[in-house]
Amino acid sequence: MSKDKTLDKNTASTPPGGLRVIAREFTKDKVALVSLFLLVIILVSVFAGAIIMNQEEVMKVNLLGRYLAPGVDGHILGTDEGGRDIFGQLIIGARNSIVIGFSITILTSLVGVSLGIVAGYYGGKFDGFLMRIVDFILILPTLMMIIVFVTIVKNYTIYHFIFIMSLFGWTYKARLFRTRTLSEASLDYVNASKTLGTSDFMIMFREILPNLSSLVIVNLTLNFAGNIGIETSLTYLGFGLPATVPSLGTLIANARSAEVLENKTWIWLPAAVFILVMMLCINYIGQAFQRAADAKQRLG
Description:
This protein is an all-alpha fold. It has 15 helices and no strands. The chain has helices spanning 2-13, 18-27, 30-52, 55-58, 86-122, 124-139, 142-152, 158-169, 171-184, 188-195, 200-211, 213-237, 248-253, 258-263, 269-299. Residues 5-15 have low confidence and may be disordered.
């Protein structure tokens, strides 16, 4: 009996793990919880709608149905100057923007986090060589290079856009995780693992990486929103997705016409509101994760 009591005391005195601390702190933020609930509804609605809709039908030009107001002839949000359904473009365009943002975030995180941990763990010449590459890429005019790439590549597709964005997007993560790994690599648990003969790979990705999990989660969340914003901005400027591919940026770009901006708000306003709501939700969630990660760091 006394043994059971001792075990219960030890269990009760054991501090919660990193992810448990983050989950506990996150659930305390009611705004973040509402944002998460709303974001899930948005994602489910967008992907379910995109599965049902046919992109070719949505982008089919119908000059007889130009600038139809919302609700006319079954068009929930009306049509644009080509008679294309705004609601269909909104759903498929949102799907494309979300997929692009998520793909770029995952690719850049895999490369940046992995290289950053390896560089910070080994240090020396490899660390110096990688940081010089990072410095070189960071000083490049990334926006201009993307514009040039889009201009010169024939049969430009969504995959080309993901590739070029990922090519430049991993450097910040590599520098961030390299810095954190430098401090982690000098701690006792790493030295103990080396003494026990644990392989470098196991130390880096089974011991150091889990201790950086809170930073990974925060970085993924905020970077996801940023990548969606970049894609939308470039498409708005005409250097993002091809004109035949629905995009939120393309819908908002219609507002460059004074006539559309003032008198045909149904063309661009739904996309603008959608982006605003989604960005606010992601940013609230990211900020909540940031505060939760800070709480975990304070608790050790």
